Structures are given as C-alpha cells and as structure tokens.
Amino acid sequence: MSPQPPSPPPADSRGTRAALLFALTAERLSVFYEHGQWPTAAQGASLVAAWLGRSGRSLPLADRRLLSELSDELARQLVGSLPREAGLQTVHEMMEALDPRYESDLARALMAECTKLLDAA
Length: 121
Prior knowledge:
mainly alpha
C-alpha cells in the first residue's frame, strides 16, 4: 500500500492565497511580455478557480477577484520599475519558482511581497 500524498492546505489559508497571488502575478507578467496584453480581472479570477479546481478546492468569486486585482497591481508595478530584460528575467524566475523544489532569493522576496499585499488588503 503506497502512502497517500498530503492533502493541500485550505484554499482560504494565508499561504495558499499568497501562493495563488504569486502564481497569478507570474502568469500576468508572462502574458504581458509574450503578447503585450494584460489579462482582465475576470480572466485572473477564472484562472484561480481552475487552479484550485484541480485539487478539489475553491474560493468565492469575491476572493478570486481580489487576488486577480492584487496580482494586476503587483505585475504592473514590476513592469513599471524594471527594464525589459530584468522583467523577463523576473518572470522566468517566478515561473521556475512555481516548482517548490526551485530555490530563488528573488522568488522568496516576491512571495514576501505577495504576503504583505494580502495582509494590507
């Protein structure tokens, strides 16, 4: 009998919300740098629902929209403060850091910023 993988934390936990905000910001930056467009708040909220749905979890629409709006704010702030090459490197680091085995000081700093944004909201 093989051991079952641990169940994921609740969708409304602080850590899960911070991770969702981080991942959604990375996705927004990726879309911006690849296509020159910003996903809408509704698209971000739908993406969060899809991600959570894979593990049988969910968040109310208002919570998903808040995460979407916060990710939009953070992504635009990063684009506005970084030269293009640094922005591309940042989004690459963030996408790599979606794998929990990947270690990155930049990703840790951005995750801390995500937590701070959530605490302020």
